[in-house]
User: What shape does this take?
Amino acid sequence: MELNELKKIIVEALGCEEEKVTLEASLMEDLEADSLDIVELQMSLEDECSLTIADEELRQMKTVGDILTYLNTHTA
Assistant: This one.
């Protein structure tokens, strides 16, 4: 997955500004996501990428870069 594709998913799920979505952006601090937002993002990513993200793996993803790395490692 490319960053631009991931940006679209994040902006839609979190309702944040696209300019704020960078590889270094923290989901909670920079993008102001709460736990409910994170669950919504998880469901969107799972639907879009046809995979299941374990809750404990999701908790380890703190930045947009972490999510992108995870997706590119776990999808073909």
Summary: The chain is about 60% helix and 0% strand. The chain has one domain: 3-74.
